Amino acid sequence: MAGVLLAVGPAACGDDGTADPGGPTATTGADEASPADCERGALDERPYILCTSGADEGQGLVIALHGRPSSAEELQQGTELHVLAAEGGLAVVYPQGVNAGWGDDPFATPSRPAGNEDVVYLDRLVAELRQDPHIGSEPIGIIGYSNGAGMALRYAAERPDMVRAVVAVAGQLARDPAVRPSGRVPLLAVHGTADPVTPFDNGLPDTPDRGPRDPTPTLSTPDTVAAFVSMASGAVTHRGPEEVDPDPDDETRVSTERWVDDEGTVAVLRAVVDGGHTWPSARGEFSGGGFGPISQDIDASADAIAFVIDPDAVG
């Protein structure tokens, strides 16, 4: 296992020059009441936080990818995915992206000249962590927020045999046609319909003069879901939308649709009506940049872990 790190440096904000894998310093040990044990490690000089469920061996692994510009620590503190995962006997790793972000499509930049560096890195991270007796060898779950969601979708699209389920919060599949699902992977998409950063209905357009600091062009959220549904096994049944508003004071409602094939749930879309670029029911000060209200109608962290455990249990 790679060596333990004592601290992590400050995050780079959108600069795609020299790699700076840092993020704000934070305490990564689990709360006294938490069932998760967390420690820092590093692979290829890129830090990560690994949280396991006590001393249990052979735990399922979940990768959680932060947005841009952000950090592993911020996602850990703001979502507490590891706490919920440990209750279900799963381990969670929060890796730090280069320049506080992820290469969610093949676009080449100075720090990602081949365009596939982050896919290769995640391959190596999974292989490295599986040397730990806490971690089992079954397919992983992968969860992401914003740019991290785009990376999670890309990884699931390119490595369907390695991924049991993917969860994208406020993120979309890259517009580049090279990034399309190549096998069946159940998808949970959670996205605000009023998201000003990655618009729900349109995604982000192609830009012919795209630079290394520019956001990735993306498909719309409905088209992202459709791409994963296209890999379904056999006939597909569509259910919904069904709208609920458990917390009428939070400015949002939630509309849920589900696609089911011969193997079970292939996709669930939770559209956060009037929601912004945020993580629903975020913990602490984590809001995803403050772009719109934080919905309290659903708990994205609880849904994400439940979906990784059993896609049929959410929705």
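That was protein one. Protein two is written in the same sequence-then-structure order:
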Amino acid sequence: MPFWAPDIGIDLGTENVSLYVRGRGVVISEPALVVLDRDDRHTVQAVGDEAGFLLGRSPDRLTPVWPIRNGLVADFDIAELMLKYFFRKAIGVSYLGKPRVIVSVPCNLDDVNRKALTEAIRYAGAKHVFLIEKPFAAAIGTGLPVYDPVGNLVVDIGAGTTDVAVISLGGLVVSQSVQVGGNKFDEALVEYLRKECSILVGNQTAENIKKDLATALPLEEDRSILVRGINQLNTSAGTVSFSSAQAYAALQGPCSAVVRAIRWVLERTPPELAADIMRGGIHLTGDAARLFALDRYISENVGIPVLLARDPGDCCILGIGYLTENIQLVTPKNKRQDKPSYK
């Protein structure tokens, strides 16, 4: 029986959880969702992929729970249960020594929520927990020189939060986190359809519209699709034509909030680092950064070139994976010898 469990890296998002195991790579990428029995919260019906399949298809006696909301632990007990499930699925239970865990968190996370997240991960089975800010991990995953004396501006747009940070010499110089992300894009589309088109749709329909039609800038040739939902006027099934111009109008609120966060950070950036950013541009990561023309929208409003990462949704877990493979970069000196080195 092996003694020490391998180190684990976690990209803990509002919608998705990815786990990286040292020496094996990314082994889990599943919804951060747990389905419980409504009458007995101790009875778990499904976690992760299985829970995602049941979402919207389960009877009333089953309740879906998202234990992580906007980067915060919304339900401590369920978060612990979910993480314990993923740990067992990733590395099994045949180890005597508990793993060290590196986990990504939003910028500016307060001490209370840092402690809550740390305790949830420890109760789930971790020996030591190291918290790494999402834009720092995303910058590593993008391949930026985060440990050099050069300023790098990273904008990580996830499902629940947008994290903006200037990174230099292995740390965050200026950072800001706002609760705007892919979920806000979906909510904006749902609200626009309700108010302007008198039709009710669910979040999954809004997600499909965002992928197929939504844009941060007007298109030269307007496109449209048919959207099916519930007509508010007669409470029956209905269909409306929804155009890219309408989608653009619906998303102006959350897109402008992202730009305001970037400007806030730039206004507080030291001049020398600002000059580096003007030369190197803004690096856009996160799954919600895939919104069509969002990079050009930010560039036009901020006046700095914007570079979209090749795989924006994977940048954070790849950066966490690099730190997991080189855990001495985050381990305090007095703890670096508490485990034998790996071959």
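Residues 76-91 form the longest helix (16 residues). Keep this in mind for the problem set.
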